[in-house]
Structure formats: C-alpha cells, structure tokens
What we know:
single chain, 77 residues, mainly beta, 5-stranded antiparallel beta sheet, two-stranded antiparallel sheet, 0% helix, elongated, Sushi domain-containing protein, sushi, Sushi_SCR_CCP_dom
Amino acid sequence: xxxxxxxxxxxxxxxxxxxxxxxxxxxxxxxxxxxxxxxxxxxxxxxxxxxxxxxxxxxxxxxxxxxxxxxxxxxxx
Length: 77
C-alpha cells in the first residue's frame, strides 16, 4: 500500500517498496539514520540513479522520501 502524495513513509525497518527493485538497509555510525540502498532486478535499471538511496531518521521513524526510485525496463539488456 503506497501513501498518497504528501503522506509520510514510516518505520525505518520497512523501506518504501519499489516495483522490480529491492533495498539493502544500513545504519550510520552515530545511529541517527537508516539508509535504504535500492537496486533493480535483472533486466531493469534505475530511471534516476541519484534516487538510489533514501534516508530514514531513527528519531522520527520517518523516511525522507519525497520521490521514490523507479526501476524501468533496461532496453540495452
């Protein structure tokens, strides 16, 4: 279930889901943020590679996700 525009994604243990992609979570050294590192499944690529990482504040338990990464078919595949 995706929140509507303007809603927040909550729970740092559950990154926002991306179709045809997956996320690997890491925590920064000071344990202030969780970062989701997104990759696309075989045959897909990130439409905007700069959106491959999203951060979640452990203090507020909210993802800083104004725009989610998108996996699109890789035509060169």
